[in-house]
Input
Amino acid sequence: MKYIDLDKTESYRNLSGLAGTKRTLAALLNVDRIKKYMAPMGAGLQYSYSAKLVDDPVLAALQKLSDEQELIEKYRAILDGETMNTGENRKVLHHLTRGQLGKPVIEKGRNLGEFYAEELNRFQAFTDAVHTGTIHGSTGKAFSTVVQIGIGGSDLGPRALYLALEQWAVRAGKKKLNAKFISNVDPDDASAAISGINMEESLFILVSKSGTTQETLSNELFVKAKLQKAGLDPRKHLVAVTSETSPLAHNPDYLDSFYIDDFIGGRYSSTSAVGGVILSLAFGPEAFKELLAGAHETDSLALNPEIAKNAALLDALIGVWERNFLNFPYTAVLPYSQALSRFPAHLQQLDMESNGKRVNRFGEPVAYSTGPVVFGEPGTNGQHSFYQLLHQGTEPVPLQFIAFLESQLGDDVEVDGSLSQTKLKANVAAQIVAFATGKSDSNRNKEFTGERPSSLILGKQLNPAVLGALLAHFENKVLFQGLVWNLNSFDQEGVQLGKILTKQVLSGNSGNPVLDAYSQLLAVK
Amino acid sequence: MKYIDLDKTESYRNLSGLAGTKRTLAALLNVDRIKKYMAPMGAGLQYSYSAKLVDDPVLAALQKLSDEQELIEKYRAILDGETMNTGENRKVLHHLTRGQLGKPVIEKGRNLGEFYAEELNRFQAFTDAVHTGTIHGSTGKAFSTVVQIGIGGSDLGPRALYLALEQWAVRAGKKKLNAKFISNVDPDDASAAISGINMEESLFILVSKSGTTQETLSNELFVKAKLQKAGLDPRKHLVAVTSETSPLAHNPDYLDSFYIDDFIGGRYSSTSAVGGVILSLAFGPEAFKELLAGAHETDSLALNPEIAKNAALLDALIGVWERNFLNFPYTAVLPYSQALSRFPAHLQQLDMESNGKRVNRFGEPVAYSTGPVVFGEPGTNGQHSFYQLLHQGTEPVPLQFIAFLESQLGDDVEVDGSLSQTKLKANVAAQIVAFATGKSDSNRNKEFTGERPSSLILGKQLNPAVLGALLAHFENKVLFQGLVWNLNSFDQEGVQLGKILTKQVLSGNSGNPVLDAYSQLLAVK
Output
């Protein structure tokens, strides 16, 4: 396989040429196109791209780009366990946490698919023991609350998934434990999280692959001090999710430890023990397995080399078209589902940490834009907030809507002849059309220029399998975009300098007068 | 006063010329500058702009721009009650909800400063009666929970402020009622909010200036149905915050109604009854008055024509420099305080809905970029998420840090020789320097180019007065930027088309085949 920069491909010239031709949504959009421009995403989800600024020639050029950059071959290489995280000399195996799609992956004589499956079985057996009360706190009381202590990928993904299913689980009679999260080194975060819970009935999951994350270790000691103050034995209230080589592994300070390895990146770890322990504890093992099955189905669809049948690939390529040929620097994710309130925050990490990079996989600066800024809030809330700029700002922002035919909880009210869920969906249809085609008006302040592209991810109802598919779709989209841009999407060297300088500040010995001056301003010492 | 487009000013040419000269933070940053480039913001807050890409010539040109665009005179005109929301032919009076800085504002014989003060007194008397149990639910039980039903400005600001002070109030012994929020027309939002509360002890605040907001009225009926089902009398469990001309005013269906008017825009309404009722109920009348006093102090500092002494004005002008002369399309807000978790979401509305506009106050298209995309999450969480792109992405994103010397709750732990709060602050200092000056490395993947500008808002501790000052700072910053761009920052015509098309969809009679096709796809009917 060849790894070449986007601007060195033949497709780059093709697409640049195509971008020189003006195309408008006003001219492109019609009923047939809305029916035709759809691709299956798994778990019944559909990706609708009729309101994107693409036409058949652009799509054909994107197909060529996919073929030229050998995206499916490279995806297969990831699945087969090749060392695709080149900078860190690691495999990229998060897909394997939800099923085998490539060759068996053997590392130092161990089949890693089996290893992940064993850990899944282990933590689900642990989960069962917590639910039955066999495993309990140091005073013998059953656990009623689980608190995840982790940051970044150990927090955002699991938290977004927990919130997405919390009420679903209540209604389905599957809610087992209440969950909380502590992430920030700001001591107010841990203090607030703990203030409302009964420590005697609380189980804490310490999540850190390296076992050395500053925030997580500080918060662990914060929690341990509180447990001790309450007369409880911390060893009976803590489990660890970590790698086998970390100080948290095989450590009697924890009830148990569940393992991931260096081949599961933080932002891709929601389907490993990082998300699995807390989600299984909260909603039961079955719900988490359904989530894995949804993700696995979506992963398998991403193997299709035909972009019209591979939603993640298509979404990725349209994003590249928007980023590098239409020159949009951002993307908004707009879920019309309150349960997905923190899903955009997870996608923000997933996308911006994977592809916010200025050098290619060989460490050479690239001459084109890479990952966009990603932001978003649930609709219809966003409509009453930042949509003003989306509709009438000076530059268009590409949009990604997410919607479901049915509400998650089935608890609704009819007002003025329609259910709230119907109004919610009517708003989605209205917004897509308003953004695409706008409205002329003799009062320019009331004019909408339109030509603001959007896509729609549409499902029947948000449940664990659908959520798994949604998660995997975006993981694979980001992966494909990184491959188009010739990046290594799986390292994050950009977080290192801040860590180094923080240590210098705390040691009081930076040797950098500017850094010392800011430290003084902040009264660090 | 003259209202002219930014690109028609003399300053525009000056600044364009200055932007042609390359300046680097590596060359500019030094210890003296860090001490000098600070401006007071009120309530003890400081605005530090030493890590912004400005120097004395740029600052002098920005001062000239401020003078040429008559920003202080126009701010005075707003305070004096002139009709500055020209499109809607309205005054702009949110400053008046926290004190009088301009002339008395008389409308149809009524002194509006007195009107807002009377409403404040009325709802604070109501608050006292709820706290003493004089006002209670229909079964005689005292209220323990208050639920705000509102969307956009009736939700984001009040919610951000509530979360910012919730734990502070608990620790200060001032927490009176627990608060929840229902905003989205998604029925899952109301259903989830209600599922965990005792309806018998719950008071609902219906917030809609017009009394016709689709989401809010649907959620009102949702809640009323639940109250009735629980055998409760909705009239004893609902109050309204609305305008005197709305259907919710003087209406026996509510325990009481508190009034705002058309001169308080939604996104600027947190210091009116829109934020005041719920914050006073939750934390007591005194805390809300302290918040008002902090905002008022900050409003008064914004009258200073000298930009070095007017933090809101300076922040606004530096933002214009970054947007129109350095061409950055976005800004990230990064509070190093978990209590400010939803403050960026409020600022997103405040900024993007005010200045996300492509026509000037006369309805003529402008030839320059206006409001940027605003996004953000608390640090250090963001460091483990999207900071990778901020440090090593292909384009710089201007940053606004917010930090406090002391934690809000005073509950901390020492690990490795430092408190968590110390680590938090050390991270802020480290990030500012890492972004500004970067780090060279022979491995380009570990190289940081730096030259990524940031500012820092620094306070002693987050309390109601400081929060009020912070809120007012950003309101005034956005106001000044709108004036530089010659916009009307106080209307939001960009939200209208979606509302119209939604109604067409729901009536089943759009006459628009494309809209009908999307409605069908979403199974609206």
